[in-house]
Amino acid sequence: MKKIITTTEAPAPIGPYNQAVLTGNTLYTSGQIAINPKTGELVLENIKAETTQVMNNLKAVLKAADMTFENVIKSTIFISNMDDFVNINEVYGSYFDDATAPARETVQVARLPKNVNVEISVIAIK
C-alpha cells in the first residue's frame, strides 16, 4: 500500500505526480528543482544557490515523511552541464556524512524542466 507524502514547505508538483510516495518503509521522492516554495520563483542566481534550494526542497519532503538525509540510501542527480559538477557536489555533500552517504549517480542531460540546471531525487528508508 502506498501513502502520498506532501508538504507546503516544498514546491507543489508541476505535473501529474506527487512530491513523494511512501510504500512500507521506503520513500521515493520525485525530482526536485530549485523552485522556492514560498514565492514559486526559480532560484537561479548561481549553481550553488540553485543546488541549495533543491536540497532544501528535498529536506522538506523528507521531513514530511519523518525522515532526514540520514535515511537516504540512493540519490540521482541530473545536470545540464557536467562542468557544474564540482559546485553541485560541494553543496550536495554538505547535506550528508561522508561515512554514511548514499549510493548515487550523476547524469548530464540535454534539458530539464523549466530549463533549470540541476534536478535531484532520492530514495530513503526508515
UniProtKB/TrEMBL annotation:
InterPro entries: RidA (IPR006056), RutC-like_sf (IPR035959), YjgF/YER057c/UK114 (IPR006175). Coiled coil: none annotated. Pfam families: Ribonuc_L-PSP (PF01042). One of its GO terms (molecular function) is deaminase activity. GO terms for cellular component: cytosol. Belongs to the RutC family. PANTHER family: 2-IMINOBUTANOATE/2-IMINOPROPANOATE DEAMINASE RIDA, PROTEIN HMF1-RELATED. NCBIfam families: Rid family detoxifying hydrolase. This is 2-iminobutanoate/2-iminopropanoate deaminase.
